[in-house]
Design goal:
Blueprint lengths: L8 E2 L2 E9 L3 E8 L10 E6 L8 H13 L10 E4 L8 E4 L4 E2 H11 L5 H20 L2 E2 L8 E3 L5 E3 L6 E2 L5 H5 L12 H4 L7 H16 L10 H5 L9 H4 L5 H10 L11 H9 L8 H4 L6 H12 L9 H7 L2 E5 L7 H16 L5 E8 L7 H16 L9 E7 L3 H11 L4 E5 L14 H8 L3 E5 L5 H4 L6
Parallel strand pairs: 12-13, 12-15, 13-14, 15-16
Antiparallel strand pairs: 1-2, 2-3, 3-4, 4-6, 5-6, 7-9, 8-11, 9-10
InterPro entries: Kinase-like_dom_sf, Prot_kinase_dom, Rossmann-like_a/b/a_fold, Ser/Thr_Kinases-Pseudokinases, UspA
Keywords: Kinase, Transferase
Protein name: Protein kinase
């Protein structure tokens, strides 16, 4: 390809300095020509390499990325500006995102010969998971997540870039039609991608697990295979447990990482929102033998997996947005005062019904207490946490992850709403207020405010209709 010259004009854009030269494309800073005001953010032009030595996948990938950027929305993808004519000079103009790639953080850790703190790994991983969740909600799967394609802004949010290998449920899969069966970057590619299955959102979770593994250990879980046989090993092999390479890796982090790297997609976290929840609440991660291991899986078990993988038929998953909807995070707002046994029972029954029609859903049991005046806040949390566990003992939680959260806040509704937003809750179940009815006209009750402001569906539960109270005069 011909390198663009700084100062030249291309379809109304003034070309600035080149900021990146990769194997697939080059990036140039650009501005509008003729004094036209910029769109409110810096811009970059991406031009694919199409010389004699480049493969056809460069142009196909360019078409895919052009298609994806025009339909994806939100803060986790660069904003689309314009596209060039494929017959003349193909290019994409998009938002230039200020931030650091995850690869630069890995390089920095390698140079310092020191692994990032588990808290930092969890924070970065959660940011990536939330960005991926946003894609999946829009029926898109990235399919090429790796540290170089993850940008972290100064405010901690993540932006995903390079959608040339991506998949969208509503558009033709040009790559599957025209390219090799295994599409992706070998070090981070999920087992189902190796055998040619595209469009499963859990493939992105595998890639996040591979990135977390490298952050925690400094090594890639499966190396960088260059042959089909090397790629296929991940269909049955487990990587070395992170704690075998870095004993300081906490069991909860290893549990999360190896959960993402399960060979079968169905054994991984149900959604990116579930993964983000675990990384935000490490104390709630259910650590089993997977998180405690310090040795590799025995060869006899690897052999059984190899035999099973030889005959395994991978099936496409439902559309990403449907998959997300099938495994929601359900939040039960459990009061600890101003309630009755009948109210707690009705709330438990409503949660039981909600979980019964949502196999694989995660349950977050949350209560809000006023900031305590006592010194021992840990004792306060233990007391109310145990109350939550007692309330949940009547639920059938088989097949459901569950967590218990005690929040301290004066503003009960505000705390519940903030928790629901931060953890991408899909359904909140809470008791409908039967007190303060005389003031409802002027001061909204907690359920009324939540119903009006919640970022999710809300199910209000009554233990008994408060009709008798409606006709009573307000107390003096």
């Amino acid at each position: 390809m011909t390198r663009l010259q700084a100062g030249s004009v291309v379809d109304g854009f003034v070309v600035g300095p080149r900021v990146h030269a990769g194997a697939m494309a080059e990036l140039y800073r650009v501005t509008y020509d003729g004094g036209r005001p910029d769109p409110g953010f810096p811009m970059v032009m991406k031009v694919p390499r199409m010389g004699g030595g480049e493969g056809a996948e460069n142009l196909v990938g360019f078409e895919v990325e052009q298609q994806m950027l025009q339909v994806l929305e939100g803060p986790h993808v660069p904003r689309f500006v314009a596209a060039g004519d494929l017959a003349r000079l193909p290019f994409l103009v998009m938002e230039y995102v200020e931030g650091r790639t995850l690869q630069s953080l890995l390089d920095e850790a390698a140079a310092a010969r020191q692994r990032p703190a588990p808290e930092a790994i969890a924070r970065w991983g959660r940011a990536v998971a939330l960005a991926v969740h946003s894609l999946h909600q829009q029926n898109a799967v990235h399919q090429d997540l790796k540290p170089a394609n993850v940008l972290l802004r100064a405010d901690g949010r993540c932006v995903l870039i390079d959608f040339g290998l991506s998949w969208h449920a509503h558009y033709p899969d040009l790559l599957a039609a025209e390219m090799r069966p295994a599409i992706g970057s070998p070090a981070w590619m999920a087992p189902e991608q190796v055998v040619g299955v595209r469009g499963d959102p859990r493939s992105d979770l595998f890639a996040i697990g591979a990135m977390l593994y490298e952050l925690a250990t400094g090594e890639l879980p499966f190396g960088e295979p260059v042959t089909q046989g090397g790629l296929r090993q991940r269909l049955w092999m487990d990587p070395a447990p992170p704690r075998a390479l870095q004993p300081a890796c906490p069991p909860w982090l290893q549990e999360v990482i190896l959960h993402c790297l399960e060979p079968e997609a169905a054994q991984r976290p149900p959604s990116a929102a579930h993964l983000a929840f675990d990384l935000a609440h490490p104390e709630e991660v259910d650590v089993g033998t997977r998180g405690q291991r310090t040795t590799r899986t025995p060869w006899t078990q690897q052999l059984r997996r190899w035999i099973r993988a030889a005959g395994l038929q991978y099936q496409p998953s439902p559309q990403p947005s449907e998959r997300v909807g099938e495994v929601p995070i359900v939040m039960a707002a459990v009061p600890h005062h101003e309630t009755t046994d009948a109210g707690l029972y009705a709330l438990r029954q409503a949660v039981k019904r909600s979980l019964g029609i949502r196999p694989g859903a995660r349950l977050a049991c949350v209560t809000v207490v006023a900031p305590g005046i006592q010194d021992d806040e840990a004792a306060l949390h233990r007391h109310h946490g145990e109350q939550l566990r007692q309330w949940a003992r009547g639920l059938d939680l088989h097949g459901h992850q569950v967590s218990f959260q005690v929040l301290q806040a004066e503003d009960v509704a505000g705390a519940l709403l903030a928790y629901a937003r931060a953890n991408h809750v899909s359904l909140m179940v809470l008791g409908a207020a039967t007190h303060g009815l005389a003031l409802q006209r002027w001061i909204p009750t907690v359920p009324a405010r939540i119903a009006a402001e919640a970022p999710c569906s809300v199910l209000l539960v009554r233990d008994a209709p408060p009709l008798a109270l409606l006709g009573q005069p307000a107390p003096a």
